[in-house]
Amino acid sequence: MPRVFAYARVSTVDQLTENQREQIAAAGYRVDGRRFVEEKVSGSVPAQMRAGFKKLLERMEAGDTLVVTKLDRIGRDSIDVQATVELCVAEDIKLIVLQLGNLDLTSSSGALMVKVLAAVADFERELIIERTRAGQARARAAGTHMGRPAKTTAAQRRTIRSRLAQGNTVSAVARDYKLSRATVIGIRESQNT
């Protein structure tokens, strides 16, 4: 007889899974306490590498149902979600996501939804990259320094170049300014301020 399992995940030890438990019960799923797996682990950890999720999958059999409240409970990115869906399909386990209207991601309409969501996620990621690059270009055009703060001032860099030109060794200058040799060499090679 098919069984119903539930998986609830939160990212930090301060958070609780109680809301997820209540949402699953409110959706009409009665899950035996032994089949309700709760985990406190970052969503950036792939589902199949999470200790609780792995144990859950080991206990499930063909025909069982796995219920989660939201798609991000099983994966932060489309690759992780798709891998979990493919595993469930291979094991003949239904994967129900309440957030998507109790959609079974292992069904044909669920597979379509996963592909659409993956495409949207990829599109959003590309938009973020474009906005970041545009912002960086605008900042550079405005003369804003990009990257790490300089370890030396413009005056110190001029003094370092002058000392090196007078014959001071890179090691001696690096020691005096508490810099690495690579930084001093970089200052010597650079002709900017």
Notes on the structure:
The protein has helices spanning 18-26, 51-59, 78-90, 108-141, 154-165, 170-177, 181-189; strands spanning 4-10, 36-40, 65-68, 94-97, 103-104. The mean pLDDT is 90. It has a five-stranded mixed sheet, sandwiched between helices. The chain has two domains: 4-107, Resolvase, N-terminal catalytic domain (Rossmann fold, 3-Layer(aba) Sandwich); 154-189. The N and C termini lie far apart (76 Å). The protein has 193 residues and is of the alpha/beta class. It is built from seven helices and five strands; from the N terminus they run βαβαβαββαααα.
Produce a short descriptive summary.
With 193 residues, the chain is α/β, with parallel strands linked by helices.
**Strand pairing plus helix content: what structural class?**
alpha/beta
Order of helices and strands: EHEHEHEEHHHH
Overall average pLDDT? 90
Compute the number of strand runs: 5
User: What strand line-up does the widest sheet have?
Assistant: 2-1-3-4-5
- Label the overall shape: elongated
**Count of alpha and pi helical runs:** 7
Poorly predicted residue ranges: none
Q: For the report, how would you describe the main beta sheet?
A: 5 strands, mixed
CATH fold title of the largest domain: Rossmann fold
Strand percent estimate: 5-15%
Q: What's the number of domains?
A: 2
CATH architecture of the largest domain: 3-Layer(aba) Sandwich
Computed Rg: 27 Å
* The CATH H-level homologous superfamily of the largest domain: Resolvase, N-terminal catalytic domain
Straight-line distance between termini: 76 Å
- CATH class call of the largest domain: Alpha Beta
Task: Indicate the percent of residues in helices.
Answer: 40-55%
